[in-house]
Design goal:
This protein is α/β, with parallel strands linked by helices. The protein is built from 24 helices and 23 strands. Helix content is 49%, strand content 22%. An 8-stranded mixed β-barrel has the order 15-16-18-19-20-21-22-23, surrounded by 4 helices. Strands 4-3-7-6-5 form a 5-stranded antiparallel beta sheet, with helices on both faces. It starts with a strand and ends with a helix. Bound molecules: ligand C2E and calcium ion (CA) (2 copies).
Length: 637
C-alpha cells in the first residue's frame, strides 16, 4: 500500500487496489456461503452434490469481481477528487467551478482571502461573484458572463471587486467553459488572482511617467500623446488650433535669490493662474523648469491668441506674496497654429518653441507668433546628416565612459559607453546634437557599430592589464529593429574574442512599442547568447508591470528625473520605494542614473538601491582617463 500526504493541508490519498479486491471477494463469498448454508440446513434430506458447491463458488467469484470493479472505480473517483482538492484547496488563487445556472459546485478556500467571504457563501448564493464586482466594472463583467455562458472559449480580464470589509481589490479573472462528452457546455471554471499591488504599481508608474510631480500637470510625454490625437482629429475635421509656449522670465534669479523651495511655490502659483484662465478646451502641461505649454483648441486666429495670452501674462505680472516675500515675475509666450505653422507634431512644437525663444529676446513683444523667417530648421537637419556622413568615414565617433559605482563600497563595477563626436572645428559634440538626426536617417546603425567596435577593443585593453569590467552600450530602436543587428554583434564579439557577459545592452521602452512579439523574440536571442539587458530611462514610459514581467529584462535603470526630485518631493520618494520593493520581488537588478549629491546617494542606499551612475561620482570620460581610474582601483584593492 502506498500513500501520499500533501502538506500543508490535511489530505491523504491511498491507493488500495488489491485490498479492494480482497474485501469484495470476502463479502460475496460470505454472502453466498451464508445463502448456501441456509439452503443446506433447510433441505437437510438432500445429499450434497459437487455441483451444489461449484455453482455458489462461481456465483461468488463473479459477483466478487463485479463488486471489486465498482469499488475500484469508486475508490479512484474519490482518489482523483481528493487529488484535485489537494491541489486546488491549497492554491493561492481562488478557484471555482459553477454550472450554467450560476450554482457553485466548488469554491476553493482561498476565496476567503481574496473576497472576505467563505466558500459557504458561494455555495448558498448562486452567481455570488456578480454581487461583489465593483459597480463601475459591473457592465463589463456582465458582458463577459453572457459571452462565456454562450461560447466554448477562454477569457481573461482584470476587474475590481468589493470585499466583505468594503475594500476594493483588483483581480485577474481567467475562466474557461467546461463541456460534457457530447461537447455540450455544462459549466464554467475560473481562477481569480489578487493583482491589486501590481495595479497600484502600474498606476504609480503611469502617474510618474505622465505627470509632473511638482504641479501635477501632464508632462511632455502626455502632452505629445494629447497633441498627436488632436492632430489626428483635426486632420479629419479641418480644425485649426493653437499651441502656446509660456516661459517665465528670469526665473533662475528667483531660485538663486530665494532658494528652490520658494521657486517651487512660485511654479505652483503660476500653474494655478494659468489653469484659471483656461477653458475646458485648453490643455496645460509643464515641460520641466519654468516652461508651460498649452494646446488651445478654441483659439483659431491671432486676435484671440493675443487676447488670451496677454490676460495670462498680466495675471502672472501681478505681485505674488509667498512666505512673506513679494515676488515680481513676468512671462513670454510663443504661438504656432496648426496646420499653418506645422501639420506635424514635432514641427509645430519646435516652431512654437522658436516663437517663444524669439519673444524672450524681443523687448517690445511679450507674445510672438511663429514666422518662417525665424530660422530654417530643415536646412540644419540636412547639413547635420551630411556632416554625420563625413564623420562616419573619418571615424569621429568614439565612446566616453561613465563609471557605474557600488555605492556601499565606492567601487567601480562597470561603465556605460556614451557616444561623443570629436570634431576638429567644434571640439566635442554631445549626443543631443546628433542622435536625433542619426536616428531619423538610420545613421545611428553605423554610429552604434563604430562605438561598439571601440568598446570591444577597450574591454580587451582593460583585460590585458587585469582590469576586466563589463560595459553597457545604448541600442536604439533602429538598431534593435534591424534583423542583422544581433548576428553582426555576435560576429564582432567573436572577432575580438569577447564573452557576451562583458556587454550589457541598454534599451528603452520605445523598443516594445512597435512589435512586442518581435521585441520579445530579439531580447530572448540576446539573453540566451549571454548578454544582460537593461531597461534604460525606467519610469519615463508607461512601464506596465504586467508586460514588463513578460519580457526578459535583467536591470532597471531608474531615470534621472526621479533621482532629481528624491530629496525634496515625497511622491518621488514613495515611487522610488515602490520601485525598489518591486525590483526585489521580481528579481530585477536596479541602478540609479544621474546621482548628483550625497543626499541622493544616502536616500538610495536607504532604499537598498546600491548601484548608481552620476556626476556625484564621475562624469563620462575618455578611454585613457577611465583606464587610469581602473588601474588606480586595481592597485588599492
Ligand atoms: P542615456 O543613455 O540616458 O545616458 C545618460 C545621460 O545622462 C548621459 O548623457 C550622461 O552623460 C548623463 N548623465 C549621467 N550622470 C549624470 C548626472 O549626474 N547629471 C546629469 N545632468 N547628467 C548625467 P549623454 O552622454 O549626453 O547622452 C545622452 C543620451 O544620448 C543618452 O542617454 C542616450 O540615450 C544617447 N546616447 C549616447 N550614446 C549613445 C550611443 O552610443 N547610441 C545610442 N543609440 N544612443 C546614445
Ligand atoms: Ca543609457
Ligand atoms: Ca538613461
Amino acid at each position: 500500500m502506498c500513500s501520499y500526504t500533501l502538506k500543508p493541508g490535511s489530505v491523504t490519498i491511498r491507493k488500495l487496489k488489491w485490498t479492494v479486491y480482497l474485501k469484495s471477494y470476502a463479502i460475496t463469498f460470505s454472502a453466498v456461503g451464508i445463502a448456501f448454508s441456509i439452503q443446506y440446513f433447510l433441505v437437510l434430506d438432500q445429499k450434497i452434490k459437487l455441483h451444489f458447491l461449484i455453482a455458489p463458488f462461481f456465483v461468488a467469484l463473479v459477483l466478487g469481481t463485479f463488486l471489486a470493479y465498482f469499488n475500484n472505480i469508486r475508490t479512484r473517483l474519490k482518489e482523483s477528487n481528493e487529488q484535485f482538492r489537494a491541489v486546488v484547496d491549497i492554491a493561492e488563487e481562488f478557484i471555482y467551478y459553477r454550472n450554467l445556472d450560476g450554482i457553485y459546485q466548488y469554491a476553493s478556500p482561498s476565496c476567503e482571502k481574496l473576497t472576505g467571504y467563505p466558500p459557504s457563501t458561494f455555495y448558498q448564493i448562486p452567481n455570488f461573484m456578480n454581487d461583489i464586482i465593483h459597480a463601475q466594472d459591473r457592465e463589463f463583467w456582465m458582458g463577459h458572463i453572457h459571452s462565456i455562458n454562450d461560447k466554448r472559449d477562454t477569457e481573461t480580464l482584470d476587474v475590481r471587486i468589493v470585499t466583505k470589509s468594503g475594500e476594493i481589490k483588483w483581480m485577474k479573472h481567467i475562466c474557461a467553459t467546461v463541456s460534457d462528452e457530447n461537447g455540450q457546455q455544462i459549466g464554467v471554471r475560473a481562477s481569480n488572482v489578487d493583482i491589486t499591488q501590481q495595479k497600484d504599481h502600474d498606476n504609480q508608474i503611469f502617474n510618474m511617467a505622465f505627470y509632473d510631480p511638482l504641479t501635477n500637470l501632464p508632462n511632455r510625454r502626455l502632452f505629445e500623446k494629447n497633441l498627436e490625437s488632436m492632430i489626428a482629429k483635426a486632420k479629419e475635421t479641418n480644425d485649426v488650433f493653437a499651441i502656446m509656449f509660456l516661459d517665465l522670465d528670469r526665473f533662475k534669479n528667483i531660485n538663486d535669490s530665494f532658494g528652490h523651495k520658494l521657486g517651487d511655490k512660485v511654479l505652483i502659483e503660476v500653474t494655478q493662474l494659468v489653469i484659471n484662465h483656461c477653458r475646458d478646451n485648453c490643455l496645460v502641461s509643464r515641460f520641466g523648469g519654468d516652461e508651460f505649454v498649452l494646446i488651445c483648441s478654441e483659439i483659431e486666429n491671432s486676435e484671440q491668441a493675443i487676447k488670451f495670452a496677454t490676460n495670462i501674462i498680466k495675471s502672472i505680472e501681478q505681485p505674488m506674496y509667498i512666505d512673506d516675500v513679494s515676488i515680481y515675475i513676468s512671462a513670454s509666450v510663443g504661438v504656432a497654429f496648426y496646420p499653418d505653422d506645422g501639420a506635424d507634431m514635432s514641427i509645430l512644437v519646435r516652431n512654437a518653441d522658436t516663437a517663444m525663444y524669439k519673444s524672450k529676446k524681443d523687448v517690445s513683444n511679450k507674445v510672438l507668433f511663429y514666422n518662417t523667417e525665424f530660422g530654417d530648421e530643415a536646412s540644419h537637419f540636412l547639413s547635420t546628416e551630411h556632416s554625420i556622413h563625413k564623420a562616419l568615414d573619418a571615424q569621429e565617433f568614439i565612446p566616453y565612459y561613465q563609471p557605474k559605482i557600488d555605492m556601499s563600497s565606492g567601487k567601480i563595477i562597470g561603465a556605460e559607453a556614451l557616444a561623443r563626436w570629436v570634431t576638429y572645428e567644434q571640439g566635442i559634440i554631445m549626443p543631443d546634437k546628433f542622435i536625433g538626426v542619426a536616428e531619423e536617417t538610420s545613421q545611428i546603425v553605423d554610429i552604434g557599430k563604430q562605438i561598439t567596435e571601440r568598446v570591444l577593443t577597450d574591454i580587451n585593453l582593460w583585460k590585458s592589464i587585469g582590469c576586466e569590467i563589463p560595459v553597457s552600450i545604448n541600442v536604439s530602436v533602429r538598431q534593435f529593429a534591424n534583423s542583422s543587428y544581433f548576428s553582426e554583434l555576435i560576429a564582432l564579439l567573436k572577432s575580438q574574442n569577447i564573452n557576451p557577459a562583458m556587454l550589457e545592452i541598454e534599451i528603452t521602452e520605445q523598443v516594445f512599442l512597435g512589435d512586442l512579439v518581435m521585441a520579445k523574440h530579439r531580447l530572448n536571442e540576446f539573453r540566451s547568447a549571454g548578454f544582460k539587458i537593461a531597461l534604460d530611462d525606467f519610469g519615463t514610459g508607461y512601464s506596465s508591470m504586467s508586460y514588463l514581467q513578460e519580457l526578459p529584462i535583467d536591470i532597471l535603470k531608474i531615470d534621472k528625473s526621479f533621482i532629481d526630485n528624491l530629496a525634496h518631493d515625497k511622491k518621488s520618494l514613495a515611487i522610488m520605494k515602490a520601485i525598489s520593493s518591486l525590483s526585489r520581488d521580481l528579481h530585477y537588478e536596479m541602478i540609479a542614473e544621474g546621482v548628483e549629491n550625497e543626499e541622493q546617494k544616502n536616500i538610495l542606499l536607504g532604499l537598498d538601491c546600491i548601484d548608481a551612475q552620476g556626476y556625484h561620482f564621475y562624469k563620462p570620460m575618455p578611454q585613457d582617463e577611465f583606464t587610469e581610474l581602473l588601474k588606480k582601483q586595481n592597485k588599492s584593492a
